[in-house]
Design brief:
Layout (H helix, E strand, L loop, with lengths): L1 H10 L5 H23 L10 H17 L1 H16 L14 H10 L1 H35 L1 H6 L3 H6 L4 H37 L3 H55 L5 H28 L2 H6 L1 H11 L4 E6 L6 H22 L4 E8 L2 E8 L13 H9 L4 E5 L6 E8 L3
Parallel strand pairs: 1-2
Antiparallel strand pairs: 2-3, 3-5, 4-5
Helix pairs in contact: 2-3, 2-4, 2-6, 2-9, 6-9, 10-11, 13-14, 14-15
């Protein structure tokens, strides 16, 4: 058992080292290729004139720069297949034309990080890897010196018996070299992984930016799904429960008209049920309208806000200037902002008039609701303004309110939308 434990300890530095050696071996050609390109003009002594020297330097550098995407793809594939390390890809460079994309690519810091890796870090690690492989070979030969001696013919082996003491030192040195080569292989693999992750992939700031974009897209998908679900609920309520209530109210109304000989108590019950049914229909209609008004989907924000202004118990001036219809999610938020703001005006402001202005400025949908009431409104006052601010923030909008004592109150909302 003790011998087995010792053997396990001695063998542990070599566990999985073959993967590191294979990784370094495959990287030598890819990582030394840029140096070979730079060295080509200087193989026969190189140019002597100043202009020729400049050309001999700039042309290979330009070739390496142009080949950077290919070299980066080859390196990331090597890390993925040999080590299972996935280096995140950089976002695609935007541009209207190929020339614009090329200029933008050259201005990107990530491009110069990659070029620096291929011209400096990669070749240095490849040279160190080549020396490590040479150490493996040399140490392997030295560690097997006794095998070489015993491979000689017997008569020759006797002549070399005087070298057995030196062979011990060579063998020990070879074994130490093997352990050192194993350590170096792992160390170079870790160093190359860190350098490639930092230079070939996105930086921390770029990763955060990419994550923010992913979260933004995910949230937009959630908002769209929630909006679709609201529409489904509205449709189910309108076509299902509301129709049943309408049918029940009609039947109760017919019963009131046709059943003349019912006792007074029965007629009273029918009257009460008829009234409750009509009130339920009205409440359900308000609920459906609050979920997602059909007019908003069919005719847009202008028509939907006109309906709110007409139903308000006080005069409401409405101005809507929307050359392009906003996205459904933004449109819904704008609708609920105006609806809730006017509801607060009616309930709390004691105003004689309100004005609503909706317009687009660049990529912003601006919603302003003003009233001439008593003022003093605040999000923490329990008037629903805090919930309204959260609804606006759900689409990256901004919410502000100005409501000094004595009025007027001005609610301003800015919602991002495509221009």
């Amino acid at each position: 058992m003790r011998i087995t434990s010792v053997a396990r300890v001695l063998r542990k530095p070599f566990d999985g080292v073959g993967r590191a050696v294979a990784f370094l071996t495959t990287g030598i050609l890819v990582q030394l290729a840029p140096l070979l390109v730079l060295a080509v003009p200087w193989l026969n002594g190189g140019p002597t004139e100043a202009l020729s020297v400049i050309v001999a330097v700039l042309v290979p550098l330009s070739a390496v720069a142009l080949a950077t995407p290919v070299l980066t793809a080859a390196q990331t594939a090597r890390f993925r297949t040999r080590l299972g390390v996935a280096i995140p890809r950089l976002p695609a460079v935007a541009g209207a034309s190929r020339a614009d994309r090329a200029r933008q690519w050259l201005r990107t810091p990530a491009t110069w990080r990659q070029i620096g890796y291929h011209l400096l870090a990669g070749p240095l690690i490849a040279l160190a890897g080549a020396l490590t492989l040479l150490l493996w070979a040399t140490a392997g030969v030295a560690a097997g010196v006794y095998a070489w001696i015993w491979a000689l013919p017997p008569e020759t082996r006797v002549e070399h018996l005087g070298y057995t003491t030196q062979a011990v030192y060579v063998t020990v040195t070879g074994l130490a070299g093997l352990y050192g080569a194993a350590w170096l292989s792992r160390a170079l693999t870790r160093l190359d992984t860190r350098a490639a992750t930092a230079r070939l992939g996105p930086s921390r700031a770029e990763l955060l930016q990419m994550r923010v974009e992913e979260v933004t897209e995910s949230r937009a998908g959630v908002l769209d799904a929630a909006d679709a679900e609201r529409r489904r609920i509205e449709r189910d309520l309108h076509d299902g429960a509301q129709q049943r209530l309408v049918s029940m109210a009609v039947n109760l109304g017919l019963a009131k008209v046709t059943l003349k000989d019912l006792p007074d108590d029965a007629r009273k019950v029918i009257d009460e049920a008829h009234r409750e049914a009509k009130e339920a229909i009205a409440e359900l209609s308000n609920l459906v309208r609050g979920l997602h008004p059909a007019v908003l989907e069919d005719r847009g924000l202008d028509a939907a806000l006109s309906g709110i202004a007409e139903r308000a118990p006080l005069p409401v001036g409405l101005t809507v200037d929307l050359p392009v219809r906003p996205a459904p999610a933004v449109e819904a938020v704008a609708y609920f902002v105006v609806s809730e703001a006017l509801a607060n005006v009616v309930k709390h402001a004691r105003a004689g008039r309100a004005d609503v202005r909706v317009e687009t400025r660049g990529g912003i949908l601006l919603v302003v609701v003003t009233d001439d009431g008593v003022g003093g409104a605040a999000p923490e006052g329990g008037t629903g303004l805090a919930g309204l601010a959260k609804r606006v923030a759900s689409v990256d909008g901004t919410f502000s309110i100005s409501s000094p004592a004595g009025g007027p109150t001005v609610v301003t909302v800015e919602l991002p939308c495509a221009p």
